[in-house]
Specification:
The complex is a heterodimer of chains A (about 220) and B (about 475).
Chain A (H helix, E strand, L loop, with lengths): L1 H6 L1 H18 L4 H26 L2 H28 L12 H21 L5 H23 L3 H23 L4 H29 L13
Helix pairs in contact in A: 2-3, 2-6, 3-4, 3-7, 4-8, 5-6, 6-7, 7-8
Chain B lengths: L1 H17 L3 H29 L2 E3 L4 E3 L1 H30 L5 H23 L5 H16 L5 H36 L8 H7 L5 H19 L7 H8 L2 H30 L1 H24 L4 H22 L1 H33 L10 H4 L1 H14 L6 H15 L3 H26 L14 H19 L3 H14 L3
Antiparallel strand pairs in B: 1-2
Helix pairs in contact in B: 1-2, 1-4, 2-3, 2-4, 3-4, 3-10, 3-13, 3-18, 4-5, 4-10, 5-6, 5-10, 6-8, 6-9, 8-10, 8-11, 9-10, 9-12, 10-11, 10-12, 10-13, 11-12, 11-17, 12-13, 12-16, 12-17, 13-15, 13-16, 13-18, 13-19, 15-17, 15-18, 16-17, 16-18
Classes of the chains: A mainly alpha (about 220), B mainly alpha (about 475).
């Protein structure tokens, strides 16, 4: 089972680095570095999947690892960079919550996730490490979505949440059945493309991609 | 069988892409939706006779509940495609749409139909994938017009629903985790048919957690309060035929996801936990709609809030449970789909005529457009739950289930809320229907197509109010048997 794998030193190291990459996104004000950090995070996830695949000897998981590598750590960052270049967006991201409070909140979220997962006794101790990392990624992703003004950062937030769930799925059950896993990749990719189209549209109609401007529909 | 049903809308979409003129694309779209309707009805008939159909090495399956969803999707889809010809034709004539946009509209329309049918017939609980696809396609339909408000609505819709659906994915993962312990790691371990057989052995703690995530996730998509905030924006800013599909059908598809998981979770956790959650979210949705409907200034938003209310009623019906409550909820799904489409179609006619969505700027519909006015009156009476229309029957069934099960407080609250909504909704509607027409409005209907579509749904609304045909009754009873646990 996955539990043995998740106890190993290399796995713990990878998971720690995944968390570090999330904090890189939290602590940066430059769009490019956020996208790069996301790419690194996805690459590390692909490594996690690769190790799980190697130790269980399942071909399904190899495919999943490969897809993560291609789609999440190459194609999606490329789409981001394309959008940034194409609409000539200002490279700095404006924040509702400043960097230092953001980092503190991020740290708090990690601690909360850790204790929350530990308190659910049904899940064994070893995979609980990966699971609490996954929970942290989901909550930090949500936090990024609400604390950053640029529409691009909301898109990035969703992807971080999705990465978190991926980590959760692979640590709990060695990933979902291949068919479902493929479907999720398809949806994520199409989702990113369509959000890209929407961002272009927002930029065209509002001449900015600050979500500040999107608050006319109420009541 | 099932694969043909799925193929029809995809093929229609591709053919729409190849057309060269307005006439052609309309013909293709209409033919395609008739084909989808016929295939859908054949599927329903087959399921009615054989109970369960499985094809494509277990990937696709249809039981009574799937067939019911397919029935709703194909009927409303067919009617909406008739309505589209009139509505989009009018916009085309006035230069709001060009041929390119018209083609994109029809292509997306049929792909949207495909994704909704897929929700109904996937065996796999990865129906998550299909539900996420519906979000993606419909967001594109919303930004067909480059208005500020519709772009804003589409972005909110996309972001909020994707986040919501991400939670549902977590719920699905947890369910799979529960299933793997019993079924082992296999591709079948997420299949509805294999899950339901062993659902009572699942760990209740995991299933409780999973159900909460599923309810919040799919609840966002179904417009249950307090996750409904995107709904009024999206449903009022989408092109009207799409609004009808979103409100009438797509919400039901998300509800379908919740109900499927409800059955599995209830088997493991016992009925108290899941039912109470559904009752709480249901009542909250109905309650939250009250002030927004009474004080509403925009008639399409008013209809959207009414959808929040009706989704709440369906959740409440399932929550009350028992054969009676579930029967009411399922019947309500159908009635709401028909009635809400009728209302949105009527609202679309008003919008084309008056070019405003403000209630105060519209009056005298009965005089300027007598047929639309009459049908809006019927629809308005029906949607607020007055006899002798379909929704009255289903709401009454759910209410009596509530009293019967001893949920006195919730039932009384429910009754109170729908009375208030009746008053508010009807007050706003009568301001538009009666009175003298605004100056500058030329009397006459917008198009025969839009009127024809309204007549078809109006027939369902009226007939189901006076009597439920025995085959339809049997069908719903079969759905109840699928959902009901105890």
């Amino acid at each position: 089972m996955a539990e043995v794998v998740f106890g190993s030193k290399i796995m713990q190291l990878l998971i720690a680095f995944i968390l570090v990459s999330t904090f890189m996104i939290l602590g940066s004000t430059r769009l490019y570095s956020c996208v790069r950090a996301f790419g690194i995070q996805s690459f590390l996830l692909a490594c996690v999947a690769g190790i799980v695949a190697y130790s269980t000897g399942k071909y399904d998981i190899y495919i999943v690892a490969l897809l993560t590598l291609i789609i999440k750590s190459a194609v999606i960052p490329y789409i981001f960079i394309y959008i940034i270049r194409e609409i000539k967006v200002k490279r700095e991201i404006e924040l509702y919550v400043n960097i230092s409070p953001s980092l503190i909140i991020g740290g708090t979220l990690v601690v909360i996730s850790y204790y929350l997962i530990r308190s659910i006794s049904i899940i064994s101790e070893l995979s609980s490490l990966a699971l609490s990392a996954s929970m942290s990624l989901v909550s930090i992703g949500l936090f990024i979505m609400i604390s950053r003004k640029k529409a691009l950062m909301q898109m990035l937030g969703i992807l971080i949440m999705e990465n978190g769930l991926f980590l959760g799925a692979i640590s709990l059950t060695n990933g979902m059945p291949l068919l479902v896993e493929l479907g999720i990749f398809f949806d994520v990719l199409i989702g990113v493309l369509i959000m890209g189209i929407l961002i272009f549209r927002i930029n065209k109609t509002f001449e900015s991609i600050d979500t500040d401007l999107l608050k006319n529909l109420i009541g | 069988m099932i694969e043909y049903l799925l193929l029809a809308p995809v093929l229609t979409g591709i053919l729409c892409f190849l057309t060269k003129s307005k006439k052609q694309v309309e013909t293709v779209s209409l033919t395609g939706s008739i084909a989808t309707l016929i295939l859908g009805l054949i599927l329903v008939k087959n399921v009615y006779q054989n109970n369960v159909i499985i094809s494509w090495t277990n990937a696709l399956f249809a039981d009574a509940f799937s067939a019911f969803i397919v029935l709703i999707v194909s009927i409303v889809g067919f009617v909406a495609s008739i309505y589209s010809i009139g509505y989009m034709g009018h916009e085309f004539k006035h230069g709001i749409m060009d041929l390119r946009k018209l083609k994109i509209y029809y292509i997306l329309f049929h792909i949207f139909m495909f994704t909704m049918l897929l929700v109904g017939v996937t065996n796999n609980l990865g129906l998550w994938i299909a539900i996420e696809m519906t979000t993606l396609v419909s967001a594109l339909l919303m930004i067909l017009h480059t208005k500020k408000s519709s772009v804003e609505a589409a972005w909110k819709y996309m972001i909020i629903c994707t986040v919501g659906i991400t939670f549902a994915l977590f719920g699905t993962i947890l369910t799979y985790y529960g299933a793997v312990k019993i079924l082992g790691e296999s591709g079948d371990a997420l299949n509805w048919t294999s899950l339901i057989a062993v659902a009572d052995q699942f760990d209740p703690t995991i299933m409780k957690l999973a159900f909460i995530f599923i309810l919040i996730g799919y609840g966002t998509k179904a417009g249950l309060a307090p996750m409904h905030t995107w709904l009024p924006d999206a449903h009022s800013e989408a092109p009207t035929p799409v609004s009808a599909l979103l409100s009438g059908v797509l919400l039901n598809c998300a509800m379908y996801g919740i109900i499927r998981f409800y059955t599995i979770a209830t088997k493991s956790t016992g009925p108290a936990f899941t039912s109470n959650l559904l009752i709480i979210f249901g009542l909250l949705s109905i309650g939250i709609a009250v002030p927004f409907i009474i004080l509403q200034e925009d008639y399409k938003r008013m209809l959207a809030y009414s959808s929040v209310e009706h989704m709440g009623i369906i959740a409440l019906g399932i929550g009350f449970g028992g054969a009676l409550g579930i029967f009411g909820a399922i019947l309500h799904m159908f009635n709401h789909a028909m009635t809400k489409s009728l209302m949105f179609f009527g609202a679309g006619n008003i919008l084309l005529k008056h070019e405003t969505k403000e209630i105060d700027k519209v009056s005298g519909i009965m005089k300027s457009m007598p047929a639309t006015g009459t049908m809006l009156l019927i629809g308005g009476l029906a949607i607020t739950g007055s006899p002798p229309f379909g929704i009255f029957i289903s709401e009454f069934t759910i209410l009596s289930a509530g009293f019967f099960q001893g949920n006195i407080i919730s039932s009384v609250l429910f009754l109170l809320f729908i009375i208030m909504i009746f008053a508010g909704f009807f007050y706003n509607l009568s301001k538009m229907i009666f009175g003298t027409p605004k100056p500058g409005i030329v009397p006459g209907e917008v198009s025969r197509w839009t009127l024809g579509a309204m007549v078809i749904v109006a027939v369902f609304v009226i007939v189901l109010g006076v009597y439920i045909p025995s085959f339809f009754y049997d069908m719903i009873m079969k759905v109840v048997a699928v959902i009901r646990v105890i």
